[in-house]
């Protein structure tokens, strides 16, 4: 609820890494690992901002932030084919009105 993200190992209750205030205090409403690239994850905050984290590029801060200004996004999920090396990765955004929007991610954050 405060924008903190914690990375845990299944065998320990203590986080391996923790990023406090990663969204400037906005609650995180969805977070998902990339299906095609293990070191990348995406976070959606309550203000409809999407944060892209690539832990191989920078493990302190997100590598990109994208605001979705047109309408409030209530949730997101990712789509892709992890068994294929084509680097196709999409973000499915569900908006408050019920509209669904699909955006494709740059290949540098999608290729294995």
Automatic annotation (TrEMBL):
<dbReference type="GO" id="GO:0045503">
    <property type="term" value="F:dynein light chain binding"/>
</dbReference>
<protein>
    <submittedName>
        <fullName>WDR60 protein</fullName>
    </submittedName>
</protein>
<dbReference type="GO" id="GO:0005868">
    <property type="term" value="C:cytoplasmic dynein complex"/>
</dbReference>
<dbReference type="GO" id="GO:0045504">
    <property type="term" value="F:dynein heavy chain binding"/>
</dbReference>
<dbReference type="GO" id="GO:0005929">
    <property type="term" value="C:cilium"/>
</dbReference>
<dbReference type="InterPro" id="IPR042505">
    <property type="entry name" value="DYNC2I1"/>
</dbReference>
<dbReference type="GO" id="GO:0042073">
    <property type="term" value="P:intraciliary transport"/>
</dbReference>
């Amino acid at each position: 609820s405060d924008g903190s993200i914690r990375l845990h190992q299944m065998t320990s209750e203590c986080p391996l890494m923790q990023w406090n205030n990663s969204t400037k205090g906005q609650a995180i409403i969805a977070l998902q690992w990339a299906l095609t690239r293990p070191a990348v994850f995406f976070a959606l905050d309550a203000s409809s901002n999407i944060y892209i984290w690539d832990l191989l590029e920078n493990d302190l801060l997100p590598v990109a932030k994208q605001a979705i200004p047109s309408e409030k996004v209530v949730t997101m999920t990712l789509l892709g084919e992890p068994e294929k090396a084509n680097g196709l990765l999409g973000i499915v955004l569900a908006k408050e009105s019920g509209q669904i929007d699909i955006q494709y991610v740059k290949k540098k954050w999608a290729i294995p």
